[in-house]
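Task: fold both queries, return tokens.
Query 1:
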Amino acid sequence: MSVHAGSCLCGTVKFEIKGEFESFFLCHCKHCQKDTGSAHAANLFSTSAQLSWLAGEDFATAFNLPETRHKKSFCAKCGSAVPNLQMDGKLLVVPAGSLDTAPDLRPNGHIFTASRADWDNNLQDLPAFEKFPG
């Protein structure tokens, strides 16, 4: 059984995931672009893994976008994305960047690409820097 540790940016919220992830998608929908401030969200999904809060559970808050199934959970102190349960607790959604341990699978693919940001194309052609250039 896999065990993954995770936390928010400020370290207030800490959690552990026991079990396997079934899928890993990069979502390009407009809702995910807005709530990440980026081109896509990177989320792991599981119907069997168990989420345990190790610290800061009271700081983990959620926003449900009215009239949609879109939900974002985040640390109330620093705003970092944290895991949440969806579909009446049947689906665990874990923001990949919130993990402190590497997930054991690569993304399955990109979803909702019809909403892809105009600037999110052919990015592999851009120069890469190991740290902030300057």
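Query 1 returned. Query 2:
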Amino acid sequence: MDSEKEIEENESKLKKFYIVFMSFLIVVLALSYFLLGPRIFEIVGSLTESSELKNNLTIETKNLTIVLEKNVYKSLKDIYFENHDREFKACLLGNIKNRTYYVSEIYIPKQKGEFNKVVYTSCPKETIISLHSHPFLRCIPSKQDFLSFSNFKKINPNVLMMIMCSEDRFYVYGN
């Protein structure tokens, strides 16, 4: 008899804990949505899907590595800060060896950028990375980004798409 009562009390305590925990979780999610806005989920997704530039100017993904020469990274950073209020386009040139993309040059095509889009002339076919920026910490590509990349990939099948969404955070897609 005592053991049945203990089991019921334990089940009751477990139910109370579960209800309190789920209530707390719902309140936290609701507050984060209303206080931080719906964009917080986009930022969290961007942080999990993008890569941070390492001190030795490399970006490592599961399948490949990108190595930026110091002058290329400095130029990218300068352009990023000059265009903090709009997107920009850059074509990265260099060579590819054993799944490592070595970037030695940057080419800036003719372009017109806005806060959430950039219209530009095509990159040279020798481009190994087609890069454009997005608003701060919003690295996830749009359908248009994938469409543009798919069209350029017909010209150069080894090209990567890279999105810069802070001075040292990049989303890499391709190969």
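Both queries returned. Flag for query 2: The chain has a mean pLDDT of 86.
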